[in-house]
Amino acid sequence: MVSLPPGGLFRLSVARYKAMLDAGIISEADRLELQIFRRRIEQALPTGWFAVTEAPLETADNVPEPDLAVVRGRMEDLAGQDLLQAADVPLVVEAADASLDQDRGTKRDTYASAGIPNYWIANIRGRCVEAFSNPVNGRYTVERVYAAGETIEASLSADTTLRIEIAF
Asked: What is the pTM of this model?
């Protein structure tokens, strides 16, 4: 077990990072695939919507920092705002590799309880997207898995839908 130094930051040396790559603990390809998926979402967003990464999101119980959140408006609209508000976020995306169990459990329940209409898990190892929607009483009522080549969609508002093809 590694203990954290004062201040809580642990600096990863280049040698340790490369050793983690060699051991398969992390994968450069996985991170690249995540970046491609994020970029596809950002490019598909219609005017009046934008994506933010790892921005704190206020919920009733905690403040998660989703890998990606789609928000109505312009990035400049967030100036001076400490936390995203769940009512302004119709889609949250988490990239899952080692965190898959947490993303399917605690995080999914947190986002459903907050009323986030759409929650996607980009399952890197499974090479698919697990989509959850229609939260009712703190639980998503619709679940579907999308494989590469399929088109996934999320309703951002009554008149706006995001559609992208899954590519891993």
From this structure: 0.81
